[in-house]
Amino acid sequence: MKKILPVVALVLLVCCTPALAGRAEKLAALEQRITSYTLNPEYKDDAHALAVVKGALESIREGSGGIGACLVDTSTGEIVEYGRNRQFSPHFRSDLHAEMDLLNRYEDRVKKFRENAETGENPRDCKNLVLVTSVEPCPMCLTRIINSGIKTVLYVVEDREGGMATRLDSLPPFWREFAADREFRPADCSAELRQMALDLFDFSSRSFAKNRVKK
Ligand SMILES: [Zn+2]
User: Fold this and answer.
1) What beta strand segments (E) does 53-178 contain?
2) Ligand 1: distance of its center to the CA of 141 in Å?
3) What's the CA-to-centroid distance between 144 and ligand 1, angstroms?
4) Which of 20, 25, 89, 152 has a 20 to 30 A CA-CA distance from 62?
5) 197 C-alpha vs ligand 1 centroid, how far in Å?
6) How far does residue 47's CA lie from ligand 1's centre (Å)?
7) Backbone phi, then psi, for 29, in 5-degree steps?
């Protein structure tokens, strides 16, 4: 047995090294496309789409999924919070999709409390905040976003197989009604940024979902 182990290690090294090198090259090429991208003034959400794409790249670099998200205050156009997928770094957290991470950070920072008729406080009052994500939210994130009170969500690229924003009619009745005044739509950004968001998502996504067809 002891003699076999070094042989197995050598075979693994020979087989895996080209694949890992190919992956590193692919990621470097993706990074080059992102860092050299110039914002296109024809698209009003280009800057925010680029910001979430950069977050997605950072997540992959850390070993997590390639999705980034941010909260934009539409009264100023400023990004007030960043989030990104942290499912596998520093340790496995099944809840830490980019949108969940983003809302955790926002809610932990602003610390709102339950409705108060006297003061008119409402924790779900998110005023001018718009959530931007690099990929259409999954069912978990979509219901969390609805519960948070955020009214508008922009996604850079659709997730035809796992996205829920394009399937609102399939929500349970309570959630469908809760979501009635919400808006989920594609971000107004360039085709290049959409392709980057898709490539980053595909780079890391769902290795456990064997039947997923990569486009
Ligand atoms: Zn999600």
Assistant:
1) 68-73, 78-84, 129-135, 152-157
2) 4
3) 9
4) 152
5) 15
6) 22
7) -65, -40
- Predicted confidence (pLDDT) per residue in 150-198, tens digit: 999 999 999 999 999 999 999 999 999 999 999 999 999 999 999 999 9
What is the distance in A from the centroid of ligand 1 to the CA of 13? 34
Interval between CA 207 and ligand 1 midpoint (Å):
15
Q: Are 120 and 109 in contact (CB under 8 A)?
A: no
**Average pLDDT of every residue of the chain:** 91
* Cα 87 to ligand 1 centroid, rounded to whole Å: 10
Distance 111 CA to ligand 1 centre (A): 23
* Span 110-157, pLDDT tens digits: 999 988 888 888 999 998 999 999 999 999 999 999 999 999 999 999
Radius of gyration of the chain (CA): 20
> What is the distance between the alpha carbons of residues 207 and 198, in angstroms, rounded to a whole number?
15
| pTM for this prediction | 0.88
3-class secondary structure, 144: helix
Q: Nearest to residue 51, comparing CAs of 205, 189, 202, 204?
A: 189
What spacing in Å lies between the alpha carbon of 71 and ligand 1's midpoint? 16
Tell me the one-letter amino acid at 81.
E
